[in-house]
Hints:
Blueprint: H1 6-15, E1 20-24, H2 28-41, E2 45-49, H3 51-55, H4 59-72, E3 77-84, H5 87-96, E4 100-103, H6 110-125, E5 130-135, E6 140-142, E7 145-147, H7 155-164, E8 169-172, H8 189-196, E9 204-207, H9 215-223, E10 226-231, H10 233-245, H11 252-275
Parallel strand pairs: 1-2, 1-10, 2-3, 3-4, 4-5, 5-8, 8-9, 9-10
Antiparallel strand pairs: 6-7
Helix pairs in contact: 2-4, 2-11, 5-6, 10-11
The structure holds zinc ion.
The site of zinc ion has 6 residues, from loops.
Amino acid sequence: MPLVSLKEVLDWAEAHNAAVPAFNIDNIDIAQSLMLAAEEEQKPVILAVGQGAIRVGRLDLLASVVKTLAARSALPVVLHLDHGASFEQTVACIRAGFTSVMFDGSSLPLRENIEQTRLVIKAAHAVGVSVEAELGAIPGAEDGIVGNGPAKVSVAEVEAFINGVDVDALAVSIGNAHGLYKSEPKLDFELLRSIRKLKAQVPHLVLHGGSGLQDKVVRSAIQEGVRKINVATEIRLAYLEGLRATMDSRDIYTYISVARSFVMNVAKAKIQLFTAEEN
Ligand SMILES: [Zn+2]
């Protein structure tokens, strides 16, 4: 089916008390492996293109790949821009067929973040594309973006932001970090609860830095209302391990199938964890 918007799959997640994984894709093999995992689990999936992939010239190439994979499938698939760097970049993605764009204005002063995000929303919503914003820079490095803002967002900041911006999804820093965790992270669920109480309808909440989080922490985050969880590092590492395991092979299809199965195993486990039904 054609690609769907981020809002559509996050509304599904809300109704099912689940989260949808946003996996970063860097090449065709990874994108195809993730789609096969989603097919096996029969769950919606968000395929995200990040700044690293864009730097090596893959914005429109990966957009074409994801559109083709979605067209072959009956599952809801979202093509998402991760950590959009500028208004211009979000517009380029919308033109390339993305159905969701993140604008990361977390390093800007709050007022400027609100103004820029509003501009992105005006362009995106005009053509049915969803927008994710970010508040309180997430520490750690990803795709060359190094977060150096406050470790946690404040409730007052979130309140000012969501009163000024009609955003579909909001990434908040609650003690999470990009990359793999060096020590066990302590996510501030009290902060999440306070954010959710701000309004009858707060934007869907997003957790970046889903790689290496303990299963029970992830389940608690979902119970507290997180609807999208980003997983980049674990997918990349699985792919690289698959390549390493077959480095001596002289058959290119051996490495493709082994790397694919490594990525699929990680992705299927995440999908199962994020969509597990609890009684
Ligand atoms: Zn992120």
